[in-house]
Structure formats: C-alpha cells, structure tokens
Write a structure and sequence with these properties.
This protein has one domain: Rossmann fold, CATH 3.40.50. The chain contains 3 helices and 8 strands. The radius of gyration is 21 Å and the shape is elongated. This is Membrane integrity-associated transporter subunit PqiC. Keywords: Signal. It holds the Pfam family ABC_trans_aux.
C-alpha cells in the first residue's frame, strides 16, 4: 500500500532535517571575533584594498588545528571555523585596520567608485596554536600605491599570543588577538 502524497509532502522535511542532523554530528563552529581595539592610530593608509590573505595549506582547512608535542599538526574534526579561513581572516583584518586607524580598508574586490589609494597583500607563513603554549602568526605584508606617488612598503611580522590550552575556543580567541595585533602593525606601517 502506497502512502498518500500529502503525507509524503509533510514527512519529507522531517526526514531531511533528521538526516542533516545525523550527518552534522556534534561539530562546533568558531568565529574569529577580536575585541574592540584599545588603541587608535593616525590614518596612514587612506583607501586601501586588502587582497585575500594567503595562508599556508594547513590553515585553509575548515577544522581548527593545533600542534602536538611531537610537532605534528592535528585537525580537531569536531571543531570547525564558522567561515572559510582565508575570507574570514581577510575580513577581520580589513575591519580591524579601519577601526584602529580610520582608514577605509576593504577586502577585494574594491566596491567603491573612487579607486583605492593603496593595495595591501598579506602572506602568512605560520598561523597555529603551537605545542609551546603560544599562538604563532608570522609572515609578510606589502603595501603598494595604486596610482600616483608613494612608496612600496614590505614588512615582516612575528606575533605570539599566550595560550592557556589548545581548546578550540581558546585557539579562536588567541587567533583573533593575534590578528588585531597584526592590524595595528599594518595600520602603523611598522
């Protein structure tokens, strides 16, 4: 005996919801949420377009990753970033640079009618919760004028933030703090 079509239409959403819930498991999603900036710097960047931040391969994974005592990086399969890491880190940096300095920092593509004054590129070499109890953020950033006069700027950065443990929420908070420090360095052109 076949079920009535209206019964199928009513039951289908419930079956789909149950299936999706079973597939999702107990995964937790983590945001990168820096606190409000404590310092305010002069605007040295003007209108700046931030290219998507270049991350090492391990940092592009959706899972929160931490380094084990032997040096191996282990993804926490039940702890996921709430957004694609490259896009999220780019948005956080642009927002923090704007808040700290008053610059108009926008992630690419540039949406405004007047072109940007400068282009900013950030290349991350290391971004991880280390086995040494520190969160590490290292790499280089480059600022170049888009049109007209101005100097190219190329700087390295090496930021560490203490970690109480490798819990994903602690890692996310440390990463947010490290990105806030990087935004301050870029805003000051240090």
């Amino acid at each position: 005996m076949r079920p009535h079509p209206s019964l199928i239409r009513k039951a289908l959403p419930l079956v789909l919801c149950a299936t999706l819930t079973a597939c999702s498991g107990d995964d937790a999603l983590y945001l990168i949420e820096p606190p409000a900036p404590a310092e305010h710097l002069p605007n040295r960047l003007g209108r700046v377009e931030l290219r998507e931040v270049v991350l090492p391969q391990y940092a592009t994974a959706p899972e929160v990753t931490a380094q084990e005592p032997g040096g191996a990086l282990r993804a926490k399969t039940d702890a996921l970033w709430a957004d694609a890491p490259g896009a999220a880190i780019t948005r956080v940096l642009a927002s923090q640079i704007s808040q700290i300095s008053g610059a108009t920092a926008v992630a690419e593509p540039w949406p405004l009618s007047a072109p940007p004054d400068r282009r900013l590129e950030v290349r991350v070499a290391q971004i991880l919760a280390g086995a040494d109890g520190l969160f590490h953020l290292t790499g280089q950033y480059f600022v170049a004028p888009v049109m007209g006069a101005g100097q190219d700027v190329a700087r390295t950065f090496a930021i560490t933030v203490p970690l109480a443990n490798s819990d994903p929420a602690t890692v996310a908070a440390a990463q947010a703090q490290a990105l806030q420090q990087l935004a301050a360095q870029i805003a000051a052109l240090k």
